Amino acid sequence: MERRTMGAGALAVGAVGLGCMPMSWAYSGSRQRGEESLRAVHRALDAGSSLLDTADMYGPFTNELLVGRVLKERRADAFVSTKVGLLVGEQHIVANGRPGYVRRACDASLRRLQTDVIDLYQLHRADPEVPVEETWGAMAELVRAGKVRALGLCAVGARGGRRSGGGLHDATIKQLRRVQQVFPVSAVEAELSVWSPEALESLLPWCEARGVGFLAAMPLGNGFLTGTLTPGEGFEPDDVRARHPRFTAEMMAANQPIVAGLRRVAARHGEDVTPAQVALAWVLAQGRHVIPVPGTKRERWAAENAAAAGLSLTPQDLAEISRLPGARGSWE
Q1: How far apart, in whole angstroms, are the C-alpha atoms of residue 35 and residue 322?
Q2: For tag attachment on the chain, is the N or C end more exposed, with fewer CB atoms within 10 Å?
Q3: Buried b (16+ CB within 10 A) or exposed e, 209-246
Q4: Residue 226 and residue 192: Cα distance in Å, rounded?
């Protein structure tokens, strides 16, 4: 697989990563099976998808434990990214950016991941009670201590619909400017997909201008852009899509033209090419510093997603995708 670099340290990873969150958190709990998830991680690594994206809050903790089982066997094949800064309670999630907590959380993640170094340590969310410079400074100390190789920041801000003009990522860019004064940012993780392209307006150019890697979260639109979901089929109560404004039966039906457009493009590239692969290839085409991180817990989808790295879209394909209608949500 093609490799892409991020940050001043030119950290190299496979062009398509693997989001491990669905294996333990946020999607259809009844379908989460440890052994199947382990096979998915191994298949991704076999295909060159070296970046494994996890977080201590996923599960919580169980996702890192699962990834750790793979790292124990194949640490040299993997680039591990995990996150700090959020604590999960019974019915709530709170931020904690106190330096002492950051240090303890890193040590705990290292134990669960069964490794002596984290390749990319990301701040999940800034703590409003702690200056972000203090949190970032504690993370920088972990780099100097040899426990972490590079630092990243997850984008602030709620999911929005397509919006014209700037503004959606202003808060993230302000944070980035502040923490850059303390220690270099190697990567930013934010949503980017055919149906959520807002990062193209300001956040992606900011990263490109500074050599900062961009990890594209949810590049398959929470599964919608794969074309495998049936409108009205419903979701389990613990599935984030059960409360998502784009996943009501009405809106899933209304947004089918987006999937149909991806199918048309896929058909031009061969009968084995899927809408999901076209969606990932579109993300890859947004810049050499962009690494899509599709999440899955299935071996089959991990292999399919990795294969998207070999799909090159033509100018005609990109133009057609740019003309697809914007995604609609039930709140609009």
Answers
A1: 39
A2: C
A3: eebbbbbbbbbbbbbbbbbebebeeebeeebebeebeb
A4: 15
pLDDT in tens, 314-331: 999 999 999 999 999 875
What are the tens digits of pLDDT across the range 160-192?
434 444 478 999 999 999 999 999 999 999 999
Give the model's pLDDT for residue 89. Answer: 81
Quote the longest CA-to-CA distance of the chain: 54
pTM of the full structure: 0.94
Which among 138, 239, 147 is positioned nearest to 179, based on CA atoms? 138
Contact 287, 208 (CB under 8 A): yes
Look at strands 86-88 and 18-19 and give their pairing. unpaired
Around Cβ 177, how many Cβ atoms within 10 Å? Answer: 11
Q: How many CB atoms lie within 10 A of CB 312?
A: 10
**How many angstroms separate the CA atoms of 137 and 205, rounded?**
25
124: Cβ contacts below 8 Å, ≥ 6 apart: 55, 57, 83, 84, 85, 86, 95, 154
Question: 3-state class of 94 per DSSP?
Answer: strand
Catalytic residues: 58
Q: Which residue has the tokens 């030119």?
A: 10
Cβ–Cβ < 8 Å for 289, 214: yes
Q: Is the dihedral of CA 154, 210, 177, 283 positive or negative?
A: negative
In the block, tokens 């817990």 appear at 297
Where the chain has pLDDT below 50, the residues are 158-166
Q: What pLDDT sits at residue 31?
A: 67
How far is the C-alpha of 14 from the C-alpha of 1, rounded, in Å?
6
Two tokens, residue 256:
């089918």
- The closest of 142, 140, 144, 147 to 117, measured between CA atoms, is 147
Residue 284, pLDDT score: 98
Which residues have C-beta within 8 Å of that of residue 251, sequence separation ≥ 6? 245, 328, 329, 330
